[in-house]
Write a structure and sequence with these properties.
By secondary structure, this protein is of the alpha/beta class. The protein has eight helices and seven strands. The longest helix has 17 residues.
Length: 188
């Protein structure tokens, strides 16, 4: 499993990082079972709006103009906010599917798809980002004016939603401004 080093990413965001520092790290086996991490559940935007693996891998080595363009993307906002939240939650690692999986490798992509439920179940915190929710409360009835999927936030329309909702012990929902909207905990 490849994870984002939260401190390295936040240092990069503040431009306080050496180009030699790796933001992504492969953590597997026994080390993974001992590693506390957060995981981001979200709807993918257009590929041009998301941060891809190759970009995340070379983020610290990019020229300033390229980095600034990446920082303007919605996908960067999701990752930055997730890292800030993980830092507040005292978690040093974060997994985000758009940038932690090298989708050029069919083997890696297949392994990630097959492992995803376990990765969500083993996460210490799951952040669900609802990009189309303005409020800090969930709608109680369908709202076709604000939501394009049968009147509900798009997050609930995805094929992955069920496993991302039931696998983690806790799911913290955030609206488009990264304000907490709800926490779902599994009864013990």
């Amino acid at each position: 499993m490849r994870l984002i080093n939260v401190k390295a990413f936040l240092d990069f965001d503040l431009e306080e990082i050496s180009p030699d520092v790796q933001i992504l790290a492969d953590i597997n086996g026994e080390r993974l079972s001992e590693t506390a991490y957060a995981i981001l559940s979200h709807c993918w935007g257009e590929p041009k709006d998301e941060i891809q693996f190759t970009e995340m891998e070379s983020l610290t080595k990019m020229d300033v103009a390229t980095r600034d363009k990446i920082r303007d993307r919605r996908g960067y906002f999701k990752i930055r906010q997730s890292c800030l939240q993980a830092h507040c939650d005292r978690l040093s690692w974060l997994w985000v599917d758009t940038c932690c999986i090298d989708k050029r490798s069919s083997t890696e992509l297949s392994e990630a798809i097959n492992s995803m439920y376990a990765w969500y179940a083993n996460s210490d915190r799951c952040y669900a980002f609802l990009h189309d929710l303005d409020s800090t409360t969930f709608p109680t009835e369908p709202d076709n004016t604000n939501f394009e999927f049968n009147g509900w936030p798009k997050w609930f329309s995805r094929g992955w939603t069920l496993q991302e909702l039931i696998a983690p012990e806790e799911v913290h929902f955030y609206n488009r401004n990264w304000e907490r909207a709800l926490v779902r905990c599994t009864p013990v």
